[in-house]
Specification:
single chain; mainly alpha; 79% helix; globular
Length: 317
């Protein structure tokens, strides 16, 4: 048992180290390989693929219940990952060989890559964090993303305290993540035009804040409504919360990368993703059955209000 624990711990560390590289590639691939009118959707596919895996992973405990089943699953996962690595090493190219068409008013990150390379890490970090608009976006986007990681974990604690079964918890988690994935793909496909960017992001933040506030109220109202009605309301609210707090992320990453230009998207969108993971871990540790949804709602309003009044699209800068 002890050997299995240390193997699992070492594997988790290795996955975490690889994830630190992968999460910086979401926006990088979209910005370098696609013209401006396709970047939003390209970024959306890459960003939501991660959450789609999270969505499927949430169903595994109800499917894989025996040790032998888990070993078989991990074996096939290892085969898929190994095959993917081989294909990546064989066919990956850092950037297209030709120019990427661009719209007026947006940055062609490929054509100006030379200027990015000259900045270096220290200068890139200085430019990023002396840019007030990037700082606003980085904090707001990463904190709402961190909240989206926290909600399912908090929900598990609250549902257990309210007497819901593990299967009921699984399906509300699924509704939260699945609606976020679908909404993220739709938003990035239909509303990535700079004309819609501000309205979409502000709407997502406002919907998330209102939804998490209603979830807080519902938590303290469970004694005056039936258990069946409470569960249905949770499913509905979790769906809206997932759509807002997960669905915005691809446009948020693209907006932050364009705002920080000429800093490489590796640093700009990477900063958002790294902070997102950090905020998520911190909020999960701070959350309990009594304050979980309250904390998420308060933090969501804290970033929603400044975003509503001070956010500017890259084309407005």
């Amino acid at each position: 048992m002890q050997e299995s624990y240390w193997l699992a711990l070492a594997s988790s560390i290795a996955i975490g180290l690889s994830a630190a590289v992968i999460i910086t590639s979401v926006t990088q691939v979209a910005m370098r390989w696609f013209p401006a009118d396709q970047r939003g959707f390209a970024c959306g596919i890459a960003a939501q693929a991660n959450y789609f895996g999270w969505c499927l992973g949430g169903l595994i405990p109800n499917i894989v219940k025996e040790d032998e089943q888990l070993k078989t699953l991990l074996f096939f996962q290892a085969l898929v990952v190994t095959t993917s690595l081989i294909l990546f090493l064989a066919f990956h190219r850092a950037r297209p060989s030709g120019p990427v068409d661009d719209f007026e008013g947006t940055h062609s990150l490929l054509e100006e890559k030379d200027s990015e390379d000259k900045l270096g890490m220290q200068e890139s970090l200085r430019q990023m964090f002396t840019n007030p608009q990037f700082g606003l976006q980085c904090i707001c986007f990463s904190l709402l993303g961190g909240i989206s990681f926290t909600i399912p974990a908090v929900q598990d604690i609250i549902f257990d305290a309210h007497g819901f079964s593990s299967q009921q918890t699984t399906w509300t988690n699924f509704s939260f993540i699945a609606t976020g994935v679908v909404t993220g793909l739709v938003i990035s496909a239909k509303f990535s035009d700079p004309r819609y960017l501000s309205r979409v992001l502000k709407t997502a933040f406002l919907v998330a804040s209102i939804t998490f506030t209603l979830m807080t109220i519902l938590t303290y109202s469970h004694k005056v409504i039936s258990k069946e009605v409470e569960y249905v309301l949770y499913v509905v609210l979790m769906s809206f919360g997932g759509a807002a707090s997960l669905g915005f992320i691809s446009l948020g990453l693209a907006s932050a990368a364009e705002t920080a230009h000429p800093v490489s998207e590796t640093y700009s969108s990477g900063a958002v993703e790294w902070l997102l993971q950090g905020f998520g871990a911190l909020l999960i540790q701070m959350s309990t059955a009594n304050v979980g949804f309250i904390l998420c709602a308060i933090m969501c309003w804290i970033v929603t209000i400044p975003l509503l009044f001070f956010y500017k699209t890259p084309t407005q800068l």
